[in-house]
Amino acid sequence: MSAENFSSKPEQIPDSEFVNQLKDQLRATWEKLPDGEKATMAIELLKDMEEVERLSFRETLDARWPITSESVPATFALINITPDDLEQIGLDEEEIEFFDESKLQEMSTEIRDHYVVQGFWEELKYHTNHFLGGLRKQNQK
């Protein structure tokens, strides 16, 4: 199956050998790009992806290279869970005593990592969409 045959039949699912050939060609071409152009090309390819593909890509990227506290820029505040925080969520004194300083630090790091990887980006999308929605309403008046 040639590339011409495949492109003339878009509804046809290519066989794995053909897909592997395309991937090999892409890798060979990629290696010829100057380093500064690789990032630009990657962004161009990402822009062409459908929303579902971008979400899948993001999940794959996060799984392969997870963001951790050590790799997060200093702009994200450190979270420091304290016994007072545990009291705020309804734990009593006996329960709070189970949490030593190392456990509180471990939880702080895990919460921060989770927030940066998922919560922050979702919140950013929500708030920007909310703001832009308000602007669109104003412009329609």
What does this structure look like?
The protein is an all-alpha fold and 141 residues long. It folds into two domains: 1-48, no CATH class; 67-141, no CATH class. Helix content is 72%, strand content 0%. It contains seven helices and no strands. The longest helix has 40 residues, at 101-140. The termini are far apart. Residues 1-10 have low confidence and may be disordered.
Short description:
72% of the residues lie in helices and 0% in strands. The chain has helices at 3-8, 16-32, 35-48, 51-64, 83-88, 93-96, 101-140. The longest helix is centred in the C-terminal third of the chain and has 40 residues, at 101-140.
Key traits:
about 140 residues; disordered N terminus; 2 domains; extended
Largest sheet, in brief, is:
none
Uncertain ranges: 1-10
Class derived from helix and strand content? mainly alpha
| Beta fraction | under 5%
Tally of alpha and pi helices: 7
Which helices and strands, and how do they pair?
Layout: H1 3-8, H2 16-32, H3 35-48, H4 51-64, H5 83-88, H6 93-96, H7 101-140
